[in-house]
Design goal:
Number of helices of chain B: 1
Distance between the termini of chain A: 116 Å
Radius of gyration of chain B: 20 Å
Strand order of the largest sheet of chain B: 1-2-3-4-5-6-7-8
Strand order of the largest sheet of chain A: 1-2
Largest sheet of chain A: 2 strands, antiparallel
Strand content of chain B: over 45%
Radius of gyration of chain A: 36 Å
Order of helices and strands of chain A: HHEEHHHHH
Number of helices of chain A: 7
Number of strands of chain A: 2
Oligomer: heterodimer
Largest interface: A-B, 29 and 33 residues
Chain lengths: 121, 173
């Protein structure tokens, strides 16, 4: 006598819990959401974009999705005292490396300061 | 007046701690969880929306439930961003718990905030599935939807939206 496989399976398996169906739906929805998120991340991310100030390096501001140099810092750096001020004209350029101590008579700091002040003046 | 203080203090202590425990038999259970996640962030660009990957974050959370109201949980989490930066913040959250057989589904709403090094404030909706593994430990998978609308971390006139996924472990105690 042929055995109906559906009957065999029906008796072999444990009865299904009534909670199984919503659980399976939840798993399916979660899987679709995860897949969509992964696809979106792989394909649609904008390289070098910023969304937050913390995405940008120090001295940069996030503006319209891109990191731009902070105008306040840029102004200071380009035309401020650091580049064109006394340090460039005196101590730094004509300081210890250019006119520094070669005879060992004085310390490097003293010689640099003196030479820089002279050259700057 | 000073003689009246000790009885008053004792009464206050009993009213605060001892009496409610005796009158009401409800108990409170706690759970701690460790979760890590990331996802997709969406914000304002020059003309179009900008998409970027959400920095990986780690949540260390504490949750509590009362025995007479097991479907409601509330708690908080310490949230640390650890991907290319260190951002420190937290989330205050309330959740509705719906048991689905051995698995529990938690739907929550919360207030995420960052306070260091930048400030960020928003709202968060969450959906968490909790699978029990061994007795006190369970695995969790969450989907978190965030909207940030205030704080010094946001560029001017912009908002930030996140759709994140998170995986973690849950400890009941």
């Amino acid at each position: 006598m042929p055995v109906d496989p559906r009957v065999t399976v029906g008796f072999a398996c444990a009865p299904r819990s009534p909670h199984r169906r919503p659980l399976r739906r939840a798993f399916s929805a979660a899987a679709w959401l995860v897949a969509a998120a992964v696809c979106a991340m792989l394909g649609a991310c904008t390289p070098d974009a910023c969304l937050r100030e913390s995405d940008c390096a120090a001295g940069f501001t996030c503006t319209a999705g891109a990191c731009t140099e902070d105008p306040v810092d840029a102004g200071r750096a380009d035309a401020g005292t650091l580049d064109a001020g006394p340090r460039d004209a005196s101590a730094a350029d004509a300081g210890p490396r250019d006119a520094g101590p070669t005879d060992g008579a004085t310390t490097e700091v003293d010689a640099g300061t003196d030479a820089g002040s002279d050259a700057g003046a | 007046m000073s003689r009246a203080l000790p009885p008053l203090a004792l009464a206050a202590f009993l009213a605060t701690f001892a009496l409610p425990a005796g009158v009401d038999a409800q108990t409170r259970s706690y759970a701690a969880s460790l979760t890590g996640g990331s996802g997709l962030s969406i914000g304002n660009g020059a003309q179009t929306a900008v998409l970027a990957r959400t920095p990986v974050f780690v949540d260390v959370a504490l949750r509590t439930t009362r025995s007479d109201e097991p479907t409601f949980a509330w708690g908080g989490a310490l949230r640390v961003e650890v991907d290319g930066r260190v951002g420190i913040g937290g989330v205050a959250r309330a959740e509705l718990v719906h048991p689905l057989g051995p698995v529990a589904l938690r739907a929550g709403i919360g207030v995420p905030f960052f306070f260091a090094p930048y400030v960020l404030l928003g709202v968060e909706g969450s959906l968490t599935l909790r699978w029990p593994a061994t007795a006190p430990i369970a695995a969790t998978a969450s989907i978190l939807l965030d909207a940030f609308f205030a704080g010094s971390d946001l560029p001017r006139n912009s908002a930030l939206f996140m759709a994140n996924g998170a995986l973690g472990v849950d400890f009941l105690f």
